[in-house]
Amino acid sequence: MSAIPVIAVFDVGKTNKKLFLFDQDYKIVFEKSARFTETVDEDGFVCENLQSLRLSVFDSLSEIFRLKEFKVKAVNFSAYGASFVHLDESGQALAPLYNYLKPYPEELSKRFYAEYGGELKFSTETASPILGSLNSGLQLYRIKHEQPGLYHRIKYSLHLPQYLSFLLSGQYYSDLTSIGCHTAMWDFNNDRYHEWIQRESLALKLAPVAAADKALPALFPGNNYKVGVGLHDSSAALIPYLVNFQEPFILISTGTWCISLNPFNQTPLTADELDKDCLFYIQYKGKHVKASRLFSGLEHEQQVKRIAAHFNQDSIKYRNLPFDAEVTAKLKKQHPQMATGVFQKQSMFGSRDLSAFISDVEAYHQLVLDLVNLQVGSTQLLLNSTSVKRIFVDGGFSKNSIYMHLLATSFKGMETFAASMAQASAVGAALCIHKEWNSKQVPSDIIELKYYSANESVSA
């Protein structure tokens, strides 16, 4: 029996690191996952164990090259953004993979924004809310001013997906999906690096920009396979939808963060939108994608624990709780609700008294109702001047019947779908270099959709 042609995709999240093999129909035929114990940087702040990650890539590839049933035609990467790997002349990492949650020095931040036009002007031009170390360009600025010795030794600073690609190809590249994601590096008005990158001479530390669909010859031994340059994971997750759907849509990608993405809205960011955590991403073909973000996956997790503890239940109970329209109608009458479409960064649920609910089912419905109200306010920021008629929801909340019914009710003029796709970011990374490894047409059934009707969702 002949070996199955496959692409290997490393999908590197903050917590879980996964490896998938996809066949030419984009079905998963092999997967493995790993978690690494974090280490600390020179300040004692937790960070990614870069050595473990690097060795895992090599070990995992060696393992799959030994599997006779598969022939690896290509390898690509999707990984979290806002993280630089700083390399010396020989390609060795010079510093820890600094954590994007590490507090940014206030004095340095003030100095930076004072020098480059003030927070509002600068963040508008770079489509990057003020996020400290999450603005990865400022990580490099910090090294230059706080660790000049280290800075001088840096040959190239690569975002994490491009570093992983470098491990297999030996070639240094930057990528627009990583540069364009709240890095504070890109001038979205002129589609080039912002002038501060030149003025600080940081451009000397940045590798040439490659097209997202570029494939490189492999340096790491194996069969004759190609290596992609890697993608930022949120941008990678959008690719299957862009490939499958031509009509304007919004994707709400749900997890710890709930990120609304509108690839059909390129209107410049306003000061109000920036204040409400809107930003631009750059999709794999270079177009701008307006986005808004909420931390509601984390809030859901925390509040579910509070409900379970109060009502002496196991929190697993709420994973598949069915939607009850009568409960929701009752809650809307008996409890104050956030006004529809009003933007907040946290829901009302955290301040609600759980003893006001007669059951944990009621309390959980109220939690999801509050989170959906929050989501509506965030998503509506992206609807201006666009003819979006469809909303796709993927990730954790797409499997939540209560969430999906309530969201459909809130967007009555649109079609709302729960989208089911195994590993959207990894599929996107595979699709991005489709022509380099796959002789078949892209299948039209990669994404499974479940329609939620606004009329059937909630009784009056």
Give the integer mean of the pLDDT values: 93
Helical amount: 25-40%
Structure class: alpha/beta
Enter the CATH topology name of the largest domain. Answer: Nucleotidyltransferase, domain 5
Taken as a percent bin, the fraction of beta residues is 15-25%
* Total domain units: 2
Taking the sheet with the most strands, its summary is: 7 strands, mixed
Give the low-pLDDT segments: none
Protein name: FGGY-family carbohydrate kinase
InterPro entries: ATPase_NBD, FGGY_C_2, FGGY_N
Keywords: Kinase, Transferase
Domain Carbohydrate kinase FGGY C-terminal: 246-436
How would you portray this structure in words?
The chain is of the alpha/beta class. It folds into two domains: 4-229, 2-Layer Sandwich (Nucleotidyltransferase, domain 5); 233-460, Nucleotidyltransferase, domain 5 (2-Layer Sandwich). The chain has 17 helices and 22 strands. The strands form six sheets. Strands 1, 2, 3, 6, 13, 14 and 15 form a seven-stranded mixed sheet that branches. Strands 18-19-17-16-20-21-22 form a seven-stranded mixed sheet, sandwiched between helices. The protein has a two-stranded antiparallel sheet with strand order 4-5. α11 packs antiparallel against α13 and α13 (360-380) packs across α14 (401-410). It is globular and about 65 Å long.
Quick recap:
This protein has 17 helices and 22 strands. One of its GO terms (molecular function) is kinase activity.
